[in-house]
Amino acid sequence: MTEDYTFRGQRDDEDVLLIVKQNAWVFAKTGIIILILANVVVFALIMFGASGVFSYLLFIFVLAAGFLVGYRWYLWSNSNYMLTNQRIIKVDQSSIFHRVISEMELDRIQDISTEMKGPIQMMINFGTIHIKTASSNEGMELASVTDPYDVQQQIVKAHNLMKNEMSGKIEFQDSFGEEVPKKTKT
User: Looking at the chain, which terminus has fewer C-beta neighbours within 10 angstroms, N or C?
Assistant: First the structure.
């Protein structure tokens, strides 16, 4: 699935290892709102019968429910988390005209933890992955990820592979963060 996946800003020697979307449970709030609106429509049917008022409320309900579902689907489908062999990229579509793209280099990761809160997350097996670096107090959160422990382990594996590859090429980093290659004997 990820072998042929490319994206704008992808580096020449960068391969996509994993693409993760938020769990579909994020639609639960939308479902609850639609149920509340459906109750209003049923209440209007009981109060007003099959009248012009009911027809108007039914039209508004169908329109609002369709818009709400379409809007939530748009946000969900345009948000994802990508793990490459060099970095983690978080694409967060917050609203129709607001997208935030964050990235974190794998070699900067210091700590990765997972968190699942409550019975729903435990039963459905989704949660949040917290990633921290030594230079940043904020870090990155990957929210509502299905199988967060498995995703965490894939990030750890990619991190360890990168560190092993770098240990053969780099002796240390200077005070400006520039990599100083190992000297080869001639």
Answer: C
